[in-house]
Amino acid sequence: MKQMIKLEEAAFFAMSILAFAQLDLAWWWYLLLLFTPDLSMLGYMAGPRLGALLYNLVHHRALAVLVYVSGVYLSYPSLMLAGIILFGHSSLDRAFGYGLKYADSFQNTNLGKIGPSAS
Fold this sequence. Notes:
This protein is 59% helix and 8% strand. With 119 residues, the chain is mostly helical. It has one domain. It has a 3-stranded antiparallel β-sheet, covered by helices on one side. A hairpin with a 2-residue loop joins β2 (105-109) and β3 (112-113). It starts with a helix and ends in a 6-residue tail after the last strand.
């Protein structure tokens, strides 16, 4: 089952690349911005509860879809790009096994433990 989820997430990531291709932007924008959602990890400097909340908000695909649809509705390509980046990044994270975080620690995710404590 875990492999099936990873394949599904990889397909979602590919879909974000296809959506990006519809924008009239240079490819380097996608590469430059792809990991910017990980800046949300800075919330962990204020503790695991706030860190998890901020990380999960930024990595929630419903937010990504809302941002993208807002960009389409408002004809605002920057919002569309932000939504695509959020969606693609979150999908890539999940394809590698990094899920949404529980408030007790960064390593405890909805997809299981990550890091050295995972074994």
